[in-house]
Design a protein that fits this description.
Blueprint lengths: L4 H12 L5 E2 L2 E2 L3 H4 L5 E6 L1 H5 L3 H10 L2 E4 L5 H4 L9 H12 L3 E9 L9 E3 L2 E2 L2 H18 L6 E6 L12 H6 L3 H12 L4 E6 L5 H16 L6 E4 L2 E3 L5 H15 L2 E9 L31 H20 L4 E6 L32 H9 L5
Parallel strand pairs: 3-4, 3-13, 4-5, 5-8, 8-9, 9-10, 10-12, 11-12, 12-13
Antiparallel strand pairs: 1-2, 6-7
The structure holds ligand G3I.
């Protein structure tokens, strides 16, 4: 994304006076317009918003965002639940919604160790597939899914979360059955299925130096094998006390050096207490519920709203400083009520991780983020 000072200023001005949904008699600014000269602003869309549209939510998405990622509906278990059965219904509606609203669509995700049915890795129930069989299964899936949306989905999380926090390759069934080169096949099949789509490697905890270095090695290896990698996705599932801006900045610089571009793909900031046994964003982890871990059931106190606002603003100042290598910042959910943090790593909590509250009203963090667009870097 190029950013010209005049373009940026005009975009920001129009954003700040945009006649979008009003709160009281104040028109609410638009994130997408405010940052138009810097990077796209995206949102993860839950399946319910696609299959059971809400006019107020649709209006908020149209006004605030220019990119969208399906939170779950394009994961293997949902779009290809059985070997000979695809369910493209929700994904077709997601793509149609994106086209109607001129959104840059991101496909999430083609190859992942999680939310992938057991049959994918088997030649018969309980019998592991061979390398050749699994490569055929991977290729058919990618051709059928990415091929179906060729020219409509602008970029794909081709492989998601292939690394351990120490930078080594995760011991997934993909790796065990095919070998370390499964990533190369995934990227080559995706490029063959839709040559126009951008291709991403996506992972969490990419602020960790060892994981960041592992991602750099992984992308270098993919490029040496002739694969195209257009950006590295930093999921960016953060807490109030971690990570430090300096860790994130070091990774933005290193990952952009390796891939040319970085995308902030799943941004949220969890204000809830962090169970002692949990780190990162591995969906396979969980922790027992307790009142201590769910302190804001009745709402987020003003002081905490202010802390969250400042923390979001800090990260957006960092993103603005590196807008030349950041393509997109996507929030992992439209509003607090739809945040995955209501159910992970502890089920049944009341999360406050995003910029819009459960009534879709902007929080202080929204205003703080919007203001960074007009700050001199
Ligand atoms: O839709 C069913 C519902 O019918 C059923 O009653 C319910 C029973 O628990 O499950 C519902 O599906 C859940 C789905 O979210 C929709 O809410 C799945 O169990 C649950 O596993 C799924 O969690 C998703 C998680 O990935 C695992 O796929 C989260 O919504 C989603 O936010 C999260 O997103 C991941 C990214 O894909 C990758 N990066 C990390 C990120 C956070 O874990």
């Amino acid at each position: 994304m190029t950013h010209h000072p005049v373009t940026t200023a005009l975009a920001v001005l129009s954003a700040l006076v945009a006649c979008g949904p009003a709160i009281g008699d104040e028109p609410v600014g638009s994130l997408a317009k405010a940052f138009a000269g810097k990077y796209r602003i995206g949102v993860a869309i839950s399946t319910g918003l696609v299959t059971n549209p809400r006019p107020a939510a649709d209006a908020l998405i149209r006004h605030q965002f220019n990119s969208a990622t399906p939170e779950n509906l394009l994961k293997w278990e949902n779009v290809h639940p059985d070997k000979d059965r695809y369910d493209f219904g929700p994904a077709d509606r997601f793509v149609a919604f994106g086209k109607e609203n001129d959104l840059f669509l991101v496909g999430h995700t083609l190859v992942w160790h999680s939310q992938t049915p057991a049959w994918v890795f088997e030649s018969a129930p309980g019998v592991p597939a061979t390398r050749e069989q699994l490569l055929t299964t991977m290729r058919d899936h990618i051709y059928n899914v990415a091929g179906r949306y060729a020219g409509q989905i602008g970029g794909w999380d081709v492989v998601n979360e292939a690394l351990n926090d120490d930078g080594t390759l995760r011991d997934s069934p993909w790796r065990r059955i095919i070998g370390d080169d499964y990533l190369e096949f995934a990227f080559k099949y995706a490029q063959e299925a839709d040559p126009a789509a951008e291709l991403y490697y996506n992972d969490y905890s990419m602020h960790l130096a060892a994981k960041r270095d592992g991602a750099v090695r992984l992308v270098d290896k993919l490029k040496q094998a002739g694969c195209r990698v257009d950006a590295i996705g930093m999921q960016s599932h953060y807490g109030m006390g971690h990570p430090q801006a300096s860790e994130v900045e070091a990774s933005i610089e290193a990952l952009a050096e390796a891939a040319g571009k970085v995308a902030i793909t799943e941004l949220d900031i969890n204000v809830l207490p962090w169970p002692s046994n949990i780190a990162g964003a591995d969906v396979g982890q969980s922790a027992a519920a307790s009142p201590r871990l769910n302190p804001y059931r009745d709402g987020l106190p003003a002081a905490k709203q202010a802390e969250l606002a400042e923390r979001y603003a800090m990260f957006f100042r960092l993103y603005n400083h590196h807008a030349d290598v950041i393509d997109r910042v996507t929030f992992w959910g439209l509003d607090d009520g739809r945040s995955w943090h209501n159910g992970w790593p502890v089920r049944g909590r009341t999360a406050h991780s995003l910029l819009f509250d459960r009534s879709l009203a902007p929080k202080p963090a929204f205003d703080a983020v919007l203001r960074t667009a007009t700050e001199t870097p």
